[in-house]
Specification:
The protein is mainly β. It has a single domain, classed as Tachylectin-2, Chain A (5 Propeller). The chain contains 3 helices and 21 strands. The strands form 5 sheets. Strands 14, 15, 16, 17 and 18 form a 5-stranded antiparallel β-sheet that branches. Strands 1-21-20-19 form a 4-stranded antiparallel β-sheet. Strands 2-3-4-5 form a 4-stranded antiparallel β-sheet, with no helix packed on it. The site of beta-D-mannopyranose (BMA) has 9 residues, from strand 6. Beta-D-mannopyranose binds next to strand 6.
Length: about 325
């Protein structure tokens, strides 16, 4: 079948879900939305764990093959610290991790759930044992953030998704820049939620961190479709210019992955696939995603097929509001 009609370039792992609370060394309500990186040849997941109060923290899980035999920290690895960081009062959620070669550190962008709403916080680590918080870098409501691994014109770049208080203003994806990772500016709206009945109308957000390819930065994003029986979270791809990441080269019209399997359809929040990390190994993408806010699943795809697919999509650069008609 023509891949363009196939809708799914990813293959689910037959052992899905690969991690759930039954694997956890301590009691928890759910484990989901994990960052995924490769460390010393191992797959390391920084997992969002929700406790029985509804508050989330992060715990590290390591595996040699990225599928089974997970070595999970026996206690929470990084807990919210509301005494020193009041913005973490209601937990820390949805981490995205980027290796910053220039700093020799991993940088973690995560959602702090403050009294004023969710916001973007940053922390660094060298070993996933000791963490140094930079603190809140974007006010609420803002989430779904990740750093680019490189600088542009001497500045760090971060993707994030602010939400306006007015319900009539769509939640789009933004790009901001910083010299020191702490003060952010030159904010630019780069990827727009579509309108009407589109799968990615009104609310979109970054999923995994930007991935550098020879054709551009590959961006995995989620779109949220509101229906009478709740939201459906699905995934699309965007290619951003390598030198100028505020320029969109192409974007998929159709979603490329969406809830189908029972563990994606049925959970604490039904019909959600929510990746926070992907790992490139031998030309294959390993996408780790939270399924139905209840467990972690794995799906794989060939990187060149993803890039070819997004490049084969129509160029909508003009007119800019083509999807309104
Ligand atoms: C989003 C985030 C995710 C969650 C998803 C579905 O807004 O909060 O953490 O997985 O909703 O509930």
């Amino acid at each position: 079948m023509d891949k363009k009609l196939n809708h799914e370039l990813f293959t689910r792992h037959p052992d899905n879900p690969i991690l759930s609370v039954k694997d956890w060394p301590y009691n928890a309500n759910s484990v989901f939305n994990a960052a995924a990186v490769e460390v010393n040849g191992q797959t390391l997941l920084l997992v969002r764990v929700e406790d029985f109060r509804g508050i989330s923290h992060f715990t590290v899980a390591r595996s040699n093959n990225g599928i089974a035999d997970w070595d999970i920290d026996k206690v929470p690895t990084l807990r919210p610290d509301p005494a020193n960081h009041p913005e973490e009062l209601w937990g820390i959620e949805d981490p995205r991790v980027t290796w910053i070669e220039k700093l020799g550190k991993w940088i973690i962008a995560y959602t702090s759930f403050s009294k004023g709403g969710p916001l973007v916080s940053l922390a660094t680590t060298e070993d996933f044992k000791v963490f140094e918080r930079l603190g809140p870098v974007m006010p609420p409501e803002d989430k779904d953030a990740a750093l680019f691994p490189k600088q542009f014109g001497g500045k760090w770049a971060m993707i994030h998704r602010p939400v306006a208080r007015s319900p009539n203003i769509p939640a789009n994806i933004w790009l901001s820049f910083s010299s020191d990772l702490w003060h952010w500016g030159n904010h630019q709206e780069i990827i727009y939620a579509r309108e009407g009945s589109w799968w990615d109308a009104n609310r979109i957000g970054l999923s995994a961190p930007p991935l550098e390819t020879s054709k551009g930065w590959l961006i995995l994003y989620h779109g949220v479709r509101s229906t009478p029986s709740g939201s459906i979270y699905r995934l699309g791809l965007v290619l951003l210019d390598l030198e100028n990441p505020s320029h969109v080269i192409r974007r998929t019209d159709e979603w490329i992955f969406g809830p189908k399997a029972t563990y994606e359809r049925d959970g604490d929040v039904d019909n959600v696939v929510f990746p926070c990390g992907w790992i490139l190994r031998d030309g294959n993408i390993h996408m780790y995603y939270g399924a139905a806010d209840s467990c972690i699943a794995l799906a794989t795809a060939k990187l060149n097929e993803l890039v070819d697919f997004v490049l084969s999509c129509p160029d909508h650069s003009s007119p800019s509001d083509w999807w309104k008609s």
